[in-house]
């Protein structure tokens, strides 16, 4: 087999593999934000703040009464002391002051 034929086959294989990786990456949204619903508001206060370098944060505070009015997704959490509530929103910016 000539070296030029071998080179063409190797180039075609490389293009095929790159195309497969590109299709998989597009389907899995690699490197992109996967439809994170960001709440544009800010909580009045947050003691257990999980801040990421991307500028997004979530608050892991569990409260006895309803969540902050800014919260869009308030879920009930079962604790030893009974039913409490937690805001599961993702916020953009800095965490609020501690409660």
TrEMBL record:
One of its GO terms (cellular component) is extracellular region. The keyword Signal applies. Transmembrane segments: none annotated. The keyword Signal applies. One of its GO terms (molecular function) is serine-type endopeptidase inhibitor activity. Gene3D superfamilies: Cysteine Protease (Bromelain) Inhibitor, subunit H. This is Bowman-Birk serine protease inhibitors family domain-containing protein. Residues 1-22 form the signal peptide. InterPro entries: Bowman-Birk_prot_inh (IPR035995), Prot_inh_BBI (IPR000877), WIP1 (IPR044167). Keywords: Disulfide bond, Protease inhibitor, Signal. Residues 59-74 form the Bowman-Birk serine protease inhibitors family domain. It comes from Eragrostis curvula.
């Amino acid at each position: 087999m000539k070296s030029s034929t071998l080179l063409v086959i190797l180039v075609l294989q490389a293009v095929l593999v790159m195309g497969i990786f590109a299709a998989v990456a597009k389907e899995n949204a690699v490197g992109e934000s996967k439809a994170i619903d960001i709440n544009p508001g800010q909580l009045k206060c947050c003691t257990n703040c999980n801040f990421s370098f991307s500028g997004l944060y979530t608050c892991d505070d569990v409260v006895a009464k309803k969540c902050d009015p800014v919260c869009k997704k308030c879920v009930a959490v079962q604790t030893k002391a009974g039913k409490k509530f937690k805001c599961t929103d993702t916020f953009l910016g800095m965490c609020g002051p501690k409660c």
